[in-house]
């Protein structure tokens, strides 16, 4: 039986055994020393002095190298900062030069319109409102730059045959501006969009080939105005319209005046009008002309508007529904003077979002 004392003794023996072995090894393996000899780790003064000098020289060399490296890094940093600053300046100048033609063109077309009396500017669009008063009629021109293709949409009630005023459409959809759009046909006390109508990239009542003088006009997914006469669905599909409506007639195409049908020159001769067109930089121009009634004695003729749009540099232009339908809304107010005395409910409206 191992007593507690023996257990303690055994513990200390096991704990000290490695140290005892190490001491024995050092004693047994220690090399003999010759009398008067030097310890292995001792160095003579003749050996220490050259080595000290060599180390001193190496340290001095390292110091010089460090100083040169630090200076080189400093020069490189200065050069980098200067280069970065120069590149930044070049990028800014290049950007300014790239924007210059657009600004010059915009200044040129704006100068023909005069001085805007109202302006709306946001990340999505810029609207400038001008007065149009050549003497024979009065109206308003609204120039719009779409910075976001979705800043223009078309309002069409989901219930077939239902119509609303442009003001109602603007408020219902939270838009900043709006105009009446395509024509309509009355049936059974309801109003339906005329011919081919596209909403959210889909045909509302299928495609109908252009007949007589009807045309389609709308916006594609990149924010470009598209329109014209289309005899087959594939021709319109290639333009990828996101929305659009139909009316008559086309006024300008590819910067050239089109032939206005004789019927539309006199029926009515003068009337309130709403027209939409685009410049070559894809800005939109909308003109809404006032008139007292639809009897043909007040407002503008289509030939007058065609000539006006041509002089303003518009590339493509389309006549939208006019008469009592003509309406222009901006900032929650009716800008024009509707010939009916109040806004007329119609099926389609072009809306603009801030």
Structural account:
The chain is of the alpha+beta class and 354 residues long. It has a domain at 116-184 and 250-352. Helix content is 35%, strand content 26%. It contains 6 helices and 20 strands. It has helices spanning 4-29, 45-113, 166-173, 233-237, 262-266, 302-311, and strands at residues 118-121, 125-132, 139-146, 152-156, 177-180, 184-187, 190-193, 198-199, 202-203, 215-220, 225-228, 241-247, 250-253, 256-257, 273-278, 284-289, 316-320, 328-330, 333-334, 348-352. The strands form 5 sheets. The chain has an 8-stranded antiparallel β-sheet, with helices on one face. It has a 5-stranded antiparallel β-sheet with strand order 4-20-5-18-19, covered by helices on one side. A hairpin with a 2-residue loop joins β6 and β7 (190-193). The longest helix has 69 residues, at 45-113. Residues 33-41 have low confidence and may be disordered.
Jot down its keywords.
alpha+beta, single chain, eight-stranded antiparallel β-sheet, five-stranded antiparallel β-sheet
Write the layout of secondary structure elements.
Elements: H1 4-29, H2 45-113, E1 118-121, E2 125-132, E3 139-146, E4 152-156, H3 166-173, E5 177-180, E6 184-187, E7 190-193, E8 198-199, E9 202-203, E10 215-220, E11 225-228, H4 233-237, E12 241-247, E13 250-253, E14 256-257, H5 262-266, E15 273-278, E16 284-289, H6 302-311, E17 316-320, E18 328-330, E19 333-334, E20 348-352
Antiparallel strand pairs: 1-2, 2-3, 3-16, 4-20, 5-18, 5-20, 6-7, 8-9, 10-11, 10-12, 13-14, 13-17, 15-16, 15-17, 18-19
Organism: Paenibacillus xylanexedens
Pfam family, one: NAGPA
Domain Phosphodiester glycosidase: 173-352
């Amino acid at each position: 039986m191992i007593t507690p004392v023996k257990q303690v003794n055994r513990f200390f023996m096991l704990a000290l055994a490695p140290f005892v072995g190490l001491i024995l090894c050092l004693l047994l393996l220690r090399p003999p020393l010759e009398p008067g000899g030097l310890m292995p780790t001792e160095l003579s003064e003749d050996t220490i002095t050259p080595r000290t000098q060599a180390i001193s020289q190496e340290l001095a060399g390292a110091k010089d190298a460090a100083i040169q490296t630090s200076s080189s890094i400093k020069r490189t940093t200065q050069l980098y900062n200067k280069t970065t600053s120069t590149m930044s300046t070049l990028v800014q100048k290049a950007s300014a030069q790239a924007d210059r033609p657009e600004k010059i063109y915009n200044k040129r077309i704006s100068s023909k319109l005069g001085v805007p009396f109202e302006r709306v500017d946001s990340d999505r669009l810029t609207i400038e409102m001008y007065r149009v008063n050549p003497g024979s009629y009065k109206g308003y021109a609204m120039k719009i730059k779409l910075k976001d293709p979705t800043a223009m949409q078309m309002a069409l009630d989901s219930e077939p045959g239902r119509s609303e005023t442009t003001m109602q459409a603007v408020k219902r959809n939270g838009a900043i501006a709006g105009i009446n759009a395509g024509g309509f046909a009355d049936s059974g006390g309801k109003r339906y969009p005329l011919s081919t109508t596209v909403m959210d990239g889909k045909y509302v009542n299928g495609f109908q080939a252009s007949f007589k003088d009807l045309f389609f006009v709308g916006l594609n997914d990149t924010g470009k105005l598209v329109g014209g006469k289309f005899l087959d669905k594939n021709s319109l599909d290639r333009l990828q319209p996101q929305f659009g409506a139909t009316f008559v007639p086309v006024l300008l195409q590819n910067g050239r005046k089109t032939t206005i049908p004789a019927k539309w020159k006199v029926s009515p001769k003068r009337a309130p009008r709403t027209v939409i067109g685009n410049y070559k930089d894809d800005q939109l121009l909308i003109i809404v002309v006032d008139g007292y009634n639809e009897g043909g004695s007040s407002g503008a003729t289509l030939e007058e508007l065609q000539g006006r749009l041509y002089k303003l540099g518009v590339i493509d232009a389309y006549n939208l529904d006019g008469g009592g339908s003509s309406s222009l809304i901006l900032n929650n107010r009716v800008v024009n003077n509707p010939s009916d005395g109040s806004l007329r409910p119609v099926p389609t409206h072009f809306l603009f979002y801030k």
